[in-house]
Amino acid sequence: MIKANGRELDIDIGNQHIVVQRRYEALGAFNDLMIAIWFLIGSFFFLNDSLVESGTWLFVVGSAQLIIKPIIKLISLVHVGALHKVAA
Question: What are the entry keywords (predicted)?
Answer without folding.
Answer: Membrane, Transmembrane, Transmembrane helix
